[in-house]
Amino acid sequence: MSQTSPQPYPAPRFLSAGDAALVVEFGDTVDPAVNHRVMRLGEAARAAGIAGLVDLVPTLRSLMVHYDPTATTRRAVEGSLRELITDAGGTRAAGRLWEFPTLYGEEVGPDLEDVAKRTGLTPERVVELHAGVEYEAFMMGFMPGLAYLGIIPPELELPRRSEPRVRVPMGSVAIATNLTNVYSLESPGGWHLLGRTPVALFDIRRDPPVLLTAGDRVRFVPVGRDAYDDLRLRVEAGDTGFAPVGTEAAR
Amino acid sequence: MTALRIVSAGFAPTLQDLGRPHVQHLGVPPAGALDPVALRLANALVGNPPDTAALELRVMGPTIEIEADAVRLALVGSGAPVEVMGDRKVEAPSHQSIRLTRGRRLRIGSLADTGVAYLAVEGGFAIEPVYGSLATYTRASIGGLDGRALRDGDRLPLGPPQAAERAELRCADLSWWRESGPVRVVLGPQDDYFAPASVAEFFAGEYRVTREADRMGMRLDGPVLAHAKGHDIVSDGIATGAIQVPGNGRPIVLLADHQTTGGYPKLGTVISADVPRLGRLRPGDALRFAEVTVEAAEAARQVLEERVARVIERFGPAEPWLDEDALYRRNLVSGIVGSGEG
What is the pLDDT of residues B103-150, one digit of tens each? Predict the structure, then answer.
């Protein structure tokens, strides 16, 4: 991810993505202020019930608007969206708050020592910093149920691994650049693995299968091996009842 | 339970409908038919709503046994015949509905003329949808039968009993399937990441589908494109048909199983009217691209929709084929006639 211009654009850009989607781009950096403008437009567009909308996909810095070209046109969709864009700050809708019990280090966090070495911190301090912040889900993507969470404390910022792993286990808690995430499925991946949570961010046995949505907030709670194993066994046995701890309004 | 028993799966068939494009904000790819036009026509032949799930076949078709009193099926998207096996093997044509009774087996062989074809079944399948769709997305084990491609021995449970006797239908107009000409593309969202000379080369050159082609996307061989502003962007959304160009300059056209977001610049997006054509391409097939405006893309989609509606309106009577009962009756008749000779 490049971080080229330091400021959000003065006015959002409307970019073409064929005849069934368009992009409203608010900036090209990883910046919560930019993401909040994306999220506000997404919420306003959802609430406005624009005809022909198929989905609204917020990303770190842009909103992708998927629409049905047999039900509406680019012109109509763009017109409706332009009416909803305001520069007013406004407050965001309440996002759910989740606490993910996390086992740091050991065999489930194989990069903890390396991250400590590269950042000049102790492993304990890395955990303290990572678990000390309430994160926001800026976007979902890469795979079903995966949330891009941020911003991590600046002391922990590292580029992605030069050699991505072929297999990162499901539930791995990882960092790269100024973001953190939980791998919702086993997959290849280039982020630094600090630990693992037994919480299933994607579980096909659950209805709906995906746990998080953009705008949710997440805290990682360090737990010991026993608590980790207890929850892991419950999840493996089919317990899909994991619930958020709160829904108080963000900011 | 009434079912289709997969005697032999062939090349990894999956159940696909029109996908689940409304949950991309959760990171769930839309999935769904690579050639939605062929799927809609197959469903229309057997009397289904257009978004009913059907078997999406690639490379080599399956052998299937009917475990229901009667089933109505239609193969659309390939000229390959449906071999119906009883005491003798007979061939039923594709692009028409056929009605088969309990215990009959059908086999679809090599699909040498297309990337995908669809076998639709009247009434569809009695399987729980995921986010409202039966579309199979194997990478996350979503949809279809246990989220995976079909295997030998699988049983696909059928919807409520259907296939009352009626005149069978044929889709004689295959002009939609033989469509040629350049694949039309709207520039953006990141065309400004490419050198103008590279954009010109993209539209002037000829590309070929490589072997790295699956439901997620197809890597193309042809003019290598030069980035003007680097090949990394802060991740943004991906639309079906997006032409993504990673650092090596070789374009990848993203299809139904594409990730919902990505960090490579996208030069353009294949228009929705031409996305079904991409699904029909096979490794080695050549293609060219032509730039169009969004308005032209919308008009092209309108033309396609009118065409599909017209093709369905003009379904005619099915071509007769020697199904076993008919064959039996004919042999009986010719036997009687024969015994009167000499």
Answer: 999 999 999 999 999 999 999 999 999 999 999 999 999 999 999 999
B237 touches A at CB < 8 Å: yes
> Residue A139 class from Cβ within 10 Å (0-12 exposed, 13-18 middle, 19+ buried)?
buried
The CA distance from B186 to the nearest CA of chain A, in Å, is 5
**Cβ(B219)–Cβ(B249) below 8 Å:** no
CATH of B183-306, one of 3.40.50.720, 2.40.100.10, 1.10.3720.10, 1.20.1200.10: 2.40.100.10
Q: Largest Cα–Cα distance in chain B? A: 88
For B238-274, write each residue's pLDDT tens digit. Answer: 999 999 999 999 999 999 999 999 989 999 999 999 9
DSSP H or E stretch at residue A37: helix A32-48
Burial A42-58 (b: 16+ CB within 10 A, else e): bbbbeeeebebbbbbbb
Is the CA virtual torsion A219, A224, A227, A231 positive or negative? positive
Instruction: Please report, for chain B, the start and end positions of each structural domain, with discontinuous segments joined by +.
Output: 3-171+315-332, 183-306
Sorted by where each begins, the domain ranges of chain A are: 13-84, 97-236
For A8, A84, B171, B239, B338, the CA distances from A80, given in Å and listed in that order, are: 22, 7, 40, 20, 77
Q: A13-84 in CATH: which number?
A: 3.30.1360.40
Contact B22 A55 (CB under 8 A): yes
- Contact of B113 with chain A, judged by CB distance below 8 Å, is answered with no
**Topology classification of domain A97-236:** Cyclophilin (2.40.100)
Query: A27 to chain B: nearest residue by CA?
Result: B234
Closest CA to A202 of A135, A137, A147, A246: A147
Lowest mean pLDDT of A3-12, B242-251, B293-302, name the range.
A3-12
Contact B235 A16 (CB under 8 A): no
Tokens read off for A226: 């026993």
The question of ipTM being above 0.85 is answered as yes
Strand extents, DSSP E, A30-89: 53-58, 62-67
Phi-psi region of A21 (alpha: psi -120 to 50; beta: other; left: phi over 0): beta
Tell me the two tokens of residue A108: 């489930």
User: Chains A, B: CB contacts under 8 A, how many?
Assistant: 164
What length is written for chain A?
251
Angle at A196 (CA atoms; ends A191, A197), nearest 5 degrees:
125
Which of A23, A144, A148 faces B189 most closely, judged by CB atoms?
A23
Residue A84, amino acid: L
Q: In the structure encoding, which two tokens stand for residue B80, read together?
A: 């390959």
**B-chain residue closest to A186, CA distance:** B140
How far, in Å, are B7, B237, B262, B342 from residue B234 at the CA level?
Answer: 47, 10, 8, 87
**pTM beyond 0.90, yes or no:** yes
